[in-house]
Write a sequence for this structure.
């Protein structure tokens, strides 16, 4: 249970980081390490080099701008969860973040790292996909914005190129009069969800995003679907599989139950919002 | 190929230590093997059990999910740093002793560090909050009831100490 040897780089600026990534092919970025270090320890991954971005200046800010919440690559889950401004602009963030592992993991793990790790069993990729957010990536070629629908391309696979560094992510603000909700079922508190659902209701539009029941975070448009049929319509776009934690049938049942429940919560959230104004 | 070594200054319990380690040295191993601070226990080594939890700049963090080289510049507190300056038990340690919050004791260092930070952030936890506080740490002996009691007792001891001062 010890990682294989690797070259270690500790850049101080984003430019230095992506120059290092370009100069040392195969290098992986180390931020919070809460998923990467176990992969290294179990030798499921043994990259030749790590680029530790924890000393890179200017990546730890949470900024509220007109288009939403901008989260730097070194913002820990715990910081984003504790930010009252972020919670006000996009309440779905905090509602999902409380389900991310345990507080101790959230203290170190980064929100942007979770996005580019692209685990379809993780909460934040599903949230970014639902909200239509994006990730900003930098490399020696410059910076570019990658929309969520182009970011998640396969299981644990993002569309970032090997020499690109994720600099931050943008979670769009909740539009006025819209409602959001999040729910998941896990075997034990803090474990990976057997199934999770994030929902957004805005005007007549109803959308739900799923974790743990597809290869990549999947957003399903449920606009106009009667409540009793929500889960079955969603399942046409999902692919729940069985493993030691749950059977495929059980996961499908969780899709039905959670979709109905979470969409209803999102509708109520919209009403609450209206009453508050 | 000889592995490249890195000079790292680890600030542990207020004392700066120079260590020379390969980049792949886990913080948990650096604490135990390089510094001889064996209070930090290593259970699962992949972030699940919580036995290796230390405080990194005051926040509970898994020492097995960090490399020592990354901890450069951070203030680390291990279980050895939780005793009072005179060597007597700190309030969380005292509460564990009073409430029989441990049996074999293997998981205890991780609980003590986690609860120390938890009560600093929330000195008056409800029963539910006390359970939530320790939900990321595994104990195979106690069944957790006495650990939750110890959280509540430690909160009480903390309040008493505050009133007295």
């Amino acid at each position: 249970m010890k990682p294989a040897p690797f070259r270690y780089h500790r850049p101080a600026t984003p430019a230095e980081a992506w120059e290092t990534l370009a100069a040392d092919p195969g290098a992986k970025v180390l931020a919070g390490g809460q998923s990467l270090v176990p992969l290294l320890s179990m030798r499921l991954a043994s990259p030749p080099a790590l680029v530790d971005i924890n000393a890179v200046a200017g990546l730890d800010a949470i900024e509220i701008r007109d288009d939403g919440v901008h989260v730097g690559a070194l913002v820990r889950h715990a910081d984003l969860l504790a930010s009252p401004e972020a919670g006000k602009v996009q309440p779905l963030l905090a509602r999902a973040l409380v389900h991310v592992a345990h507080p101790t993991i959230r203290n170190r793990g980064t929100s942007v790292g979770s996005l580019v790790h692209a685990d379809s069993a993780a909460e934040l990729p599903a949230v970014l996909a639902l909200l239509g957010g994006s990730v900003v990536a930098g490399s020696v070629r410059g910076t570019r914005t990658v929309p969520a629908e182009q970011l998640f391309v396969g299981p644990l696979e993002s569309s970032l190129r090997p020499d690109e560094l994720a600099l931050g992510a943008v979670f769009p603000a909740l539009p006025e009069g819209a409602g959001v909700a999040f729910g998941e079922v896990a075997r034990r508190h803090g474990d990976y969800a057997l199934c999770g659902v994030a929902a957004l209701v805005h005007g007549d539009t109803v959308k739900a995003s799923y974790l743990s029941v597809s290869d990549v975070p999947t957003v399903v448009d449920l606009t106009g679907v009667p409540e009793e049929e929500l889960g079955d319509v969603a399942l046409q776009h999902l692919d729940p599989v069985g493993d030691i934690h749950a059977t495929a049938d059980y996961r499908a049942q969780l899709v039905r139950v959670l979709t109905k429940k979470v969409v209803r919560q999102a509708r109520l959230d919209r009403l609450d919002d209206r009453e508050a104004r | 190929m000889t592995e490249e070594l890195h000079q790292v200054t680890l600030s542990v319990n207020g004392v700066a230590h120079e260590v020379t380690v390969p980049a792949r040295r886990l913080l948990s191993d650096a604490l135990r093997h390089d510094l001889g601070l064996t209070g930090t226990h290593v259970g699962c080594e992949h972030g699940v059990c919580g036995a290796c939890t230390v405080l990194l700049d005051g926040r509970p963090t898994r020492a097995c999910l960090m490399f020592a080289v990354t901890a450069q510049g951070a203030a680390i507190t291990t279980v050895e740093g939780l005793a009072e300056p005179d060597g007597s038990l700190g309030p969380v340690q005292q509460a564990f002793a009073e409430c029989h919050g441990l049996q074999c004791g293997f998981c205890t260092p991780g609980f003590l560090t986690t609860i120390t930070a938890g009560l600093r952030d929330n000195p008056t936890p409800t029963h539910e909050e006390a359970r939530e506080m320790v939900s990321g740490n595994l104990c195979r002996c106690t069944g957790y009831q006495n650990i939750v009691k110890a959280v509540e007792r430690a909160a009480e001891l903390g309040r008493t100490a505050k009133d007295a001062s």
Observations:
- Chain A has a mean pLDDT of 96.
- Chain A has three domains: 7-52, 62-172, 179-276.
- Chain A touches chain B at residues 1-8, 10, 30, 33-34, 37-38, 40-42, 50, 52, 54-55, 78, 101-105, 107-108, 189-190 (CB under 8 Å).
